[in-house]
Amino acid sequence: MEDVNSSTDVAIEVEVTTGVELPQPPSPAVERRLPEHRPHVKWPGSSDKKLWETVNTDLTVTLLKLRGTLEKKMEKMADIIYEYGAMRFGVQEAKVRKGVPTPPVSRRQQEIKRLIQERRQLRKQWKKASEEEKEGIEALQDDVKTRLASLRRAENLRKRRRKKEQTRTRFYKNPYKFLGSLFTKEKSGTLKTTKKDMEEHLRATNLDSKRHEQLVPISTVENMERKVTCYLKKWLGVPQCLTTISLYGDGVLKLPLTSLTEEFKCAKTRVQMTLHESRDPVVSNNAPNLATGRKWKPEVAVQEATAALRHADIVGHVQQGRGGFGLTPSRPTWNKATAPERRKMVVQEVRHQEEAARQAKAVSLSKQGQWTRWDSVERRKISWKDLWAMEVRRLSFSIRATYDVLPTPVNLHQWYGEDPNCALCSMPANLRHIFTGCKTSLTQGRYTWRHNQVLKSLASAIEDKRTATNSIPPPAAPYPPRTTFVREGARPPKIVSTPSERDQLRLARDWQMLVDVGRQLVFPPEIAVTTLRPDMVLWSHTLKKVFIIELTVPWEDSIDEAYERKHLRYADLAAEARGSGWKTEVRPVEVGCRGFVATSTTKLLRDLGVKGQSLRLAIRAVSEAAEGSSQWLWMKRADPSWGPK
């Protein structure tokens, strides 16, 4: 009765104060449970101060006349204010939301719906059919089932793809909101445990009582690498006596394989620096001991690498190779490097030390370390793509020939005590004898055939460049050099030579070429009269310039000797051509019998304007021609009858 009287008093007070006759509700306003989402009241504007003062006075009087305790008045206050505002000012009409347009039904969905209806009809027909008709209906049902399964599979794939796209879009649009949506009521909740229990659980879960003990010693990793190396050699088809430098080293033939021991050392070194050089003192002061045995320790490796890098800063930039000063890229100094750069530099230094140890071991190998003396050849790098594309026998032959572990008579005599003599000329037959030194093979024309195969590949690349150069319009007349004025105390601008300036064919459009393949080459009589037959002659009457190109396919150790020999052979011819007013260049080029291209060949192609992908393809074609021809000579090493491939 108290609640009813209080609600009646509220209605009476509102009517008396405002002067508006209010309809009496059938039940008290406070007792009625209003909906959770009520329409908004049309409250007056904030600038109408007089009206708001009236509202404040009315509500104050109404609340003061309410009966009951303060808690009950607080519970009823919100409903009273809402009822007062709704009766006096009215409420806003709810906006009718437009319905979300249904997505169009695709043809696949229509077909699925049709097949479902057809399956239902077939089921009804099967129940009413005879035994003979049931067999035909079952065949139709199987057909419908197969088609329906295929269509549903495709539709599910489309839905999953669409869902993934929508999820990706929501993540890119608002990552924080997307991450918040992942934590639903089922995935989140209130933690009902004490701090002591939580710390005890974390301590028991994450604390490792054996954290100071070594996880994997370096000796275990080395044993694992031996097993891996054994299976790798079987997979590549190479003998077990082959040194591991050929698999993991950065030599003349680089394979896409890395040493397990080297990766282990680099990983431990990286973790060592990450923990001990952390900016967080809690991490750096409590870093675990990365013990890896007595053979190798990461902290010692980090100290040695750091000392080497500091010493490199003192020495400065050192030029390597035959290139001019400044051609090799510089590296960041230790003092100016950031923490990530230092970590990367230390790991790279550890790799460099491992490679230096392999190089030192390779130099001490008399047979398998011959490649360390090949200073004038381009290094070959086989990627995983090349490795999978190569034939198994071709890859095995390339590795075994590079490191001289093919079963030659001399090697078989050393391994098993067999006859070391050549089957063709009865001379001691090592790999060099079979590839370049057998007199019978030379007489039969085997080496000439290989030479011609390589010459065809090289001539094809130069011919493509010559044809392309002759087909473009002639160059415009060169402008006279401009005078560059420099202010007092300023430096003159650097003149950067573009790669096109090395293209010696670009200045003329009448280049001609002769190749000593198929028919006997006759040296152009307008240049010089001689009986010499170089492999290629490239000349231009406009420039009065001639290139005398001579190809040799020697043993890789004799590339420098072959270059000097061929250069001296055509020195008199070049002098005679210069006497006739021709600019003459004698360009001996070499391609090793095992497929290693000399730097003289690469330099010739670049000087003639072959660059970029064309240069890489040309070098690869020449290398494959030499290697493939030598492989055929190897297969025919004991066959007295010669026939080209």
UniProtKB/TrEMBL annotation:
Region spans: Disordered: 16-45
Top-rank taxon, per record: Eukaryota
Keyword annotations from UniProtKB, A to Z: Coiled coil
Coiled coil segments of this chain: 105-143
UniProt KW Coiled coil keyword: yes
UniProt name for this protein: Reverse transcriptase
